[in-house]
Write a structure and sequence with these properties.
Layout lengths: L2 H6 L1 E8 L5 H9 L3 E5 L6 E9 L2 E7 L11 H13 L3 E7 L3 H13 L4 E6 L1 H6 L2 E3 L1 H8 L3 E3 L8 H14 L10 H14 L8 H10 L2 H10 L1 H18 L3 H20 E3 L7 H9 L4 H5 L1
Parallel strand pairs: 1-4, 1-5, 5-6, 6-8
Antiparallel strand pairs: 2-3, 3-4, 7-9
Helix pairs in contact: 4-12, 6-12, 8-9, 8-11, 9-11, 10-11
């Protein structure tokens, strides 16, 4: 195999998602002992990366910090956004907690705005089932325009199918569907995007337009250097939205994302009768209980 072919067979896949959704469990399952824990350059935030060999591919897995937004209110959010936009991993696996789908989709929509090739790990489907939540995986995939793979990370269920899909997305460089917000917001975003085109920024113009409306300081600083007229227009358009709706523009954008996330969640999930625990599950619960476990043993 030539050196060029070898390079083509190496992929970088990033894991992104909220905290406590099973992201690190998937990372550990995939990389095992072939992982390294350090810090992000110049930061005190932990960086976890590992390597695995799968179906002829050498795959570097990057476990991004658990975050709830891609607006840079924290170091973790800034690290994740810059890594995805600037380092450009071949694909991003967005790990989503199936038992609180709407809450997690708020972050998913922001990843989609970045136009990164991605696949969704619909994790903790067993917990969702226990809560009586049933999700139409095919419909969710259709609405988002990305592959969705149900997983139960703690049991290793669906993990290698997830990896197959991530490789497929990475090779094809498939982008998710564009997120469509309300008419007034789309008009505002479109006006700013037109002025931003050709500004040589590391982010998609539409994403930058949305972030300017949110008052993202890091984005504002970058745009002020490359295209100050776009920043002025964004502030003008933002004031128009504020006068129209009576709330600050960052609040309006956040509310609009939650509205869209809620619409998607309601369309793909239904509440059924919660599943009853099996005898084995009941025994496991008792024997692992902090107090009762000692009595049983």
């Amino acid at each position: 195999m030539s050196r060029l072919s070898e390079r083509k067979r190496r992929l970088v896949i990033a894991l992104a998602g909220n905290a406590n959704v099973g992201k690190s469990v998937i990372f550990n399952y995939l990389t095992g002992l072939h992982q390294h824990i350090g810090n992000w350059p110049g930061k005190t935030v932990e960086r976890a990366e590992g390597t695995l060999y799968f179906k002829g591919y050498t795959i570097d897995i990057i476990d991004l910090p658990g975050i709830y937004s891609l607006t840079t209110y924290s170091i973790e959010e800034s690290i994740s956004r810059r890594y995805i936009a600037v380092e450009k991993p071949n694909a991003v696996i967005n790990v989503v907690d199936a038992s609180v789908l709407e809450r997690n989709l708020f972050f998913t929509l922001q990843l989609m705005e970045l136009e990164t090739p991605m696949v969704i790990a619909l994790n903790q489907t067993d917990i969702a089932k226990k809560k009586g939540i049933e999700i139409n995986v095919e419909k969710l995939s259709e609405l988002l325009g990305v592959p969705v793979v149900p997983t139960i990370a703690v049991k290793g269920i669906g993990i290698f199918k997830l990896l197959d899909k991530a490789i497929e997305v990475a090779e094809k460089r498939n982008k998710p569907k564009g997120v469509e917000y309300g008419r007034d917001f789309e008009t505002a975003i479109s006006r700013i995007t037109k002025v931003l085109n050709g500004s040589d920024l590391p982010y998609p113009p539409r994403y930058v337009a949305i972030k300017l409306l949110e008052g993202d300081r890091e984005i504002e600083e970058e745009v002020s250097k490359k295209n100050p007229s776009a920043l002025s227009l964004a502030r003008e358009v933002g004031k128009e939205l504020e006068e129209l709706y009576g709330h600050s523009c960052p609040t309006l954008i956040t509310s609009e994302r939650y509205r869209v996330a809620g619409c998607i969640a309601r369309e793909v999930q239904k509440i059924i009768q919660p599943s009853k625990p099996t005898l084995a599950e009941k025994v496991h619960e008792v024997t692992t209980h902090r107090a009762l476990g000692y009595l049983v043993m």
